[in-house]
Design brief:
CATH class of the largest domain: Alpha Beta
CATH topology of the largest domain: Double-stranded beta-helix
CATH superfamily of the largest domain: Clavaminate synthase-like
Shape: elongated
Helix content: 10-25%
Structural class: alpha+beta
Strand content: 25-35%
Number of domains: 2
Bound molecules: N-oxalylglycine, zinc ion
Oligomer: single chain
């Protein structure tokens, strides 16, 4: 996939538009520029395939990638767009490249492919290798990537794509090695530390400060909804799972939220519009936030689910809202736990599940610690670094 127009040989960095003056020539991965004219506050260009595009003068000046307008080493923007540009520059197509001679004497050059990918009159024209989110269908089965493929770039890329698309992916046939989860996570980025550490052991412990560190069943939940920014991605690596029980359960929180909207719009609205308190306290910490269970984006689509019944704090709502809130919560709980929306499987030693903790809820069945050992190692990662890693691998 062509991410930007510039040639990797001359410009290996893809952070910014980086056609450098004098380094551009004809390109074969897009239609050529055939005509360019300055009309009023815009430049109008015609492409060889008949498409016409308009670019505002100030936008073009702002995106000049010469060594004066962008730092030649960091490629970060130096130009600051504070002046209006009303005088029409001289425009030419020079060796296939759009060349602009501004009235102040500055010269800019724009690669045709770079420009084409950023047409302002075509929605969503900027190329991005990130996959679109896909809601789980009834027959959803998570992608499984072998550990040895993950250690090669191609498997890692598949793993990242599945995780961003489905919100959950499995890795299999990994070594039964202490800290393997940290090594795998470390390929993507620094581990996201929380009050439970950067890396945590999930097993039944003598003095648990958290339900996960017991052997009880865990109903579906998201981790750390009591944080302003809960961890994005959770990795759970299975080292031992001999105990009876302990199967893992998951549900696509966004898909179930949509199902709630469909079947009970009033309950959906209430959970989306009513902030409630979440709070975790132990000897060393007291971490609390007030936020709705379903957070929506500007377009009204689910953006984040906060769902964790253990650390829901006192329900502080006006008296006349309390019963309706419980009814809505119950409705969402029931839908989430409806077998139609639940995925259940037992993690085998050497398997790792990774999921989007702000979209996908996870849980586990109770296990009997007298029948064998169960030991998972977990950590968290930031979504930004997953996306970054995929863009880097896709270069
Ligand atoms: C957790 C958790 C699930 C499990 O540690 O947050 O939910 O399978 N663990 O033990
Ligand atoms: Zn410039
Ligand atoms: Zn959990």
């Amino acid at each position: 996939m062509s991410v930007t127009a510039s040639s990797p040989q001359t410009q290996p960095d893809t952070r910014q538009p980086r056609q450098a003056m004098g380094e551009l020539s004809a390109h074969d991965d897009g239609p050529a520029l055939v005509e360019a004219v300055a009309t009023g506050a815009r430049i109008t260009v015609d492409w060889a395939d008949g498409v016409r595009s308009h670019f505002p003068l100030l936008w073009l000046r702002d995106h000049c990638a010469c060594a004066v307008c962008r730092h030649p080493l960091t490629r970060e923007r130096l130009f600051v767009p504070l002046q209006e540009i009303d005088a029409a520059p001289a425009v030419a197509i020079d060796d296939g490249v759009l060349r602009i001679d501004w009235v102040d004497g500055h010269e800019s050059r724009f690669d045709p492919v770079w420009l084409r990918q950023r047409r302002l009159d075509a929605p969503d024209s900027t190329p991005d290798p990130l996959p679109q989110r896909r809601a789980w269908a009834d027959d959803f089965r998570p992608a499984r990537i072998a550990h040895h493929d993950f250690m090669r770039t191609r498997g890692e890329r598949e793993w990242l794509e599945a995780l961003l698309r489905d919100g959950l992916v499995l890795l299999e046939d990994g070594p039964l090695a202490d800290e393997e989860v940290s090594r795998l996570a470390g390929r993507i980025g620094p581990l996201r530390a929380t009050n439970f550490g950067a890396r945590f052991d999930v097993r039944s412990k003598p003095n648990p400060n958290n339900a996960a560190y017991t052997s009880i069943g865990l109903a579906l939940h998201t981790d750390l909804p009591n944080w302003r920014q809960p961890p994005d991605i959770q990795l759970l690596y299975c080292l031992q799972n001999e105990a009876e029980g302990g199967e893992s359960t998951f549900a696509d929180g966004f898909a179930v939220a949509e199902a709630l909207r469909e079947s009970d719009p009033e309950a959906f609205r209430r959970l989306a519009e009513t902030p409630i308190d979440f709070r975790f306290q132990d000897e060393d910490h007291d971490i609390a936030v007030r936020a709705p269970i379903i957070q929506l984006d500007a377009a009204g689509r689910p953006l984040e689910i906060r769902f964790n019944n253990w650390i829901r704090d006192t329900l502080r709502l006006p008296l006349d809202q309390v019963d309706a809130w419980y009814a809505a919560y119950r409705r969402f709980w029931q839908l989430l736990h409806d077998p139609r929306y639940q995925l259940e499987f037992a993690l085998a030693p050497g398997e790792m599940v990774a999921f989007d903790n702000r979209r996908v809820l996870h849980g586990r069945k109770a296990f009997d610690p007298n029948t064998g050992k169960r030991h998972l190692q977990g950590t968290y990662l930031d979504l930004d670094l997953l996306e970054s890693r995929l863009r880097v691998l896709a270069r």
